[in-house]
Specification:
The complex is a heterodimer of chains A (194) and B (633). Chain A is 37% helix and 23% strand. Chain A is built from seven helices and six strands. The radius of gyration of chain B is 27 Å and the shape is globular. In chain B, 35% of the residues lie in helices and 15% in strands. In chain B, strand 2, helix 3 and strand 3 form a beta-alpha-beta unit. In chain B, 53% of the residues are buried. With 633 residues, chain B is of the alpha/beta class. The interface between A and B is large, with 59 and 67 residues.
Chain lengths: 194, 633
């Protein structure tokens, strides 16, 4: 079965559900079968969270098996590192360089990893780092980091720009469509020449 | 691409077994929509003439009712769509509609069915007139629940047929099946989705919405609707007869994925486990050497299916979540492999890789090695920056460091992180447990300080009854009602104090103070947890009342910051900074755990993350050194 699987990871509140919804809608508009799985409830209160999106001509399961993801879109470094086991060998990581330090991490016993990119590369994954926080700051809206990363992912997928724009317009509040499309384009520019 | 012809590897079309109810797999964009399972279930209800839908919010079922309300409002349908005080009341209200001949439904999470189990058991005996669907959403994992319990076991216990969809579209389609089944045999029918169905998205072909047309009629029949034990015996016998007939009901018969296969092996799956199994069977080639069945009605399992299965195959693997419901009915341990003999894990979610390994072992194939799951811990959930619950918990801890803290179900369960919670049992238990602890210690001649915390929605759900009881038992403790004027954890549904129903219409509103006073609680005061010193004084007053007077209730009232619908007054934002007085003791991080206060590794000191900070300024009271200050101070 020719299925593409994308895992989004981050912490609750970063907009994981919105990012996966944009991708799912775009694949759907392309005419593909889509299955996605998200988590609500306690998972949305700032804890580690993942969301699965799978699309292709025929998709049954909404979950990506471990070692089965083509792409990992990580909105946060530690969450990128922690979830890399979902990736296929030599899978692609779109990694935000953002760090959200767990309050429970004892800096002396369990320091926040400083070398996430290096460790992911050492495991054979293709890593693309994005300073989504700096870009979002430049755009003037800190809530668009998720869409910047979807933009970075988009260069790897064969969906036309107008479908992405439609998917974004369908997913975000009307007032923020333009800024989200700008965020998407900024992310896409970084990866477009690969 | 306007249309895609989808052929399964065996030559069987996708639509045959996933949606063989007339839907064609055509991508007409105007009739197909991406929906999550809960919206799909709601769509099924409005497409099939449901006239009354009731619910109490609970993950993973919370989005069903709002989606029903959305279509009701958009199409101006004549429907009663409401959040009820709790699941028992939601059930009884919707069931009355069914007795009056209307198609109705009640939705809840699995532990909600525990609350509604009393009417559920009796409704099975008495049966229905209009179609009545009980939607009980399970949470294998569990991701956001107290238990992994299987609602299908409750269906079996109550002797009610249950349908188990494998994806969102099937969940929608099973609503039609369930209403037909319910009306044909005059029984309640359970639809049992799981988290991966409820919060799994896919594209779905929309069907026409039918406005509910029937009008309510109640034909008096006290021998049935008010049956005494003698009549209940007769009703029980008639229920057994209905179940025998339902075990032969053609539309819900198990479906074979790969007809024509000659094999002695059968894989029998239900729910989302079947969706995983289909893909694994195709990818691994198992589809060529094992018959793969989908059970859509796990109880009662079809009699002829059971007989044929045990006659045609010698080796059977059953994959289902979360209890061995199908497996137990097959009752052939020597031939059947599953949860009861260790072939399927007995706890936790059935993830695709777990199913793959089980299927491959069953078919004598070897599994590929799996990537190691790194040991690095993740980030645990915590209360939002500026959440007033954090202030309340901090005040409680500071005022009564040695008290027993009983708490309840909601966002505020995260008070655990702050060390301000000792017990969480189930909805409403904070109050009865506080009462129980008081009485237990009193037997030994001691009076412990006890502080119960409960949210506003949970107080209405089942706290009020416990409070009445605590008063008449003469128990003494402090009850803090954490009132953020919304049902926050499940997505900010209104409470009975909101004055709004699920469709956004104005309704009478209740007051927590009035209820507390009606329970004969003499000490009932409202405080603002953002005013930390004032709130601590209030807790001390409450404490002196409990010493010899009884229960004292403090209502900690401040709006939920993530509730977009809230019109509650908020304090003005105050920017904060950490001054040089910080000695890096970590007290604020460990005891207050605000996402906006971070540990700065290079300096070893605390630092305010201005982007995350809500400006509540409560942390100004937290630092033992007084290092956290208001900007400009």
């Amino acid at each position: 079965m020719d299925i593409k699987s994308v895992l989004f990871s981050g912490v609750g509140g970063q907009g994981i559900i919105l990012a996966s919804a944009i991708l799912a809608k775009c694949a759907f508009k392309k005419g593909l079968m889509v299955k996605e799985s998200e988590l609500h409830g306690m998972a949305q209160r700032g804890g580690s969270v993942v969301s699965h999106v799978r699309f292709g001509n025929e998709v049954f399961s909404p979950l990506i098996p471990k070692g089965g993801a083509d792409f990992l879109v990580a909105l946060e470094e530690l969450e990128g590192l922690r979830n890399s086991y979902y990736l296929k060998p030599s899978g692609i990581v779109i990694l935000s360089t953002k760090k959200i330090i767990p309050q429970t991490a004892d800096p002396s016993l369990n320091p926040y990893p400083e070398d996430a990119e290096k460790r992911l590369c050492a495991d054979g994954f293709q890593v693309r780092t994005i300073d989504s926080f700096a870009i979002a700051k430049e755009i003037g809206n800190l809530k668009v980091e998720n869409v910047i990363l979807v933009g970075a992912l988009s260069s790897y997928l064969d969906f036309p720009m107008e479908l992405w724009e439609q998917a974004i317009s369908d997913s975000v509040p009307p007032k923020t469509v333009q800024i989200n499309i700008e965020a998407f384009n900024k992310g896409r520019e970084i990866t477009v020449n690969i | 691409m306007s249309s895609v012809d989808i052929i399964f590897p065996t030559g069987l079309s996708y639509s045959f077994f996933i949606s063989n109810l007339g839907a064609k797999k055509d991508f007409f964009m105007n009739t197909r929509l991406l929906l999550i399972g809960n919206e799909a279930i709601a769509r099924g209800l409005v497409e099939n003439g449901c006239a009354m839908a009731l619910s109490y919010p609970g993950t993973p079922a919370s989005e069903i009712l709002p989606a029903v309300a959305k279509w009701r409002n958009e199409l101006n349908l004549c429907m009663h769509v409401r959040w009820a005080l709790n699941e028992k009341i939601a059930f009884e209200t919707a069931y009355a509609g069914s007795i009056a001949g209307l198609r109705t439904a009640v939705s809840m999470k699995q532990v909600g069915l525990n609350v509604a189990s009393d009417p559920f058991m009796s409704a099975a005996y008495m049966g229905v007139k209009g179609g009545f669907i009980v939607i009980s959403a399970d949470d294998p994992g569990p991701h956001s629940s107290q238990t992994e319990q299987d609602s299908r076991m409750m269906a079996m216990f109550a002797k009610v047929p249950v349908l188990d969809p494998c994806n969102a579209e099937q969940a929608r389609d099973f609503i039609a099946l369930a209403y037909e089944l319910s009306e044909a045999y005059e029984v309640p029918v359970m639809l049992r989705p799981t988290t991966r169905i409820c919060h799994g998205g896919q594209d779905i072909e929309l069907r026409e919405i039918k406005a509910p047309l029937r009008s309510a009629v109640l034909k008096r029949d006290p021998a049935r609707w008010a049956a005494t034990p003698k009549f209940r015996y007769a009703l029980h016998k008639s229920l057994n007869e209905k179940l025998s007939a339902i075990a032969a009901h053609a539309p819900t018969r198990p479906r074979l994925l790969n007809p024509g296969i000659k094999t002695s092996r059968a894989i029998v799956a239900s729910g989302v486990a079947f969706a995983h199994a289909v893909e694994i069977a195709a990818d691994s080639g198992i589809i060529e050497n094992a018959a793969v069945w989908q059970v859509i009605q796990p109880f009662p399992l079809h009699t002829d299916f059971m007989e044929n299965l045990l006659a045609e195959y010698t080796d059977i693997l059953v994959i289902e979540e979360s209890a061995p419901v199908i497996e137990m009915q097959l009752a052939a341990g020597h031939m059947v492999k599953g949860r009861m003999n260790g072939h399927i894990p007995q706890a936790g979610e059935l993830l695709p890789e777990i199913i793959e390994d089980a299927m491959k072992r069953f078919c004598g194939l070897s599994s590929k090695p799996r990537p190691q799951v790194p040991a690095t811990g993740g980030k645990r959930p915590c209360l939002c920056a500026g959440c007033s619950h954090r202030a309340s918990f901090f005040a409680i801890k500071k005022t009564f460091p040695d008290a027993i803290y009983t708490s309840d179900i909601g966002c505020y369960t995260l008070g655990l992180n702050l060390g301000a919670i000792d017990t969480v049992l189930c909805m409403g238990a904070s109050i009865s447990q506080a009462s129980g602890f008081y009485q237990a210690f009193k037997l030994g001649g001691t009076q412990k300080d006890i502080v119960a915390t409960i949210g506003d929605s949970t107080f209405f759900h089942s706290g009020a009854a416990a409070l009445m009881d605590a008063v008449v038992q003469d128990s003494r403790f402090i009850l803090v009602v954490l009132d953020n004027s919304t049902t926050a954890m499940t997505g900010n549904q209104p409470t009975p104090a909101s004055g709004l129903d699920a469709c956004g219409n104005a309704v009478p509103e209740l007051s927590i103070e009035d209820i507390v006073k009606g329970c004969k609680v003499e000490f009932c005061r409202v405080g603002d947890p953002y005013d930390l010193p004032g709130f601590i004084d209030l807790l001390k007053e409450a404490h002196s009342h409990t010493k010899d007077m009884g229960v004292a209730v403090v209502i900690a009232r401040y709006p939920c910051l993530v509730d977009k619908k809230s019109n509650g007054a908020l304090h003005e934002r105050i920017d904060m900074y950490v001054s040089d007085l910080c000695n890096g003791c970590g007290y604020c991080i460990k005891q207050f755990e605000c996402p906006a206060i971070e540990h700065d590794a290079p300096s070893g000191k605390a630092v305010i993350n201005a982007e995350a900070c809500s400006g509540c300024a409560i942390c100004a009271h937290v630092c033992p050194q007084g290092a956290i200050k208001k900007v400009g101070e």
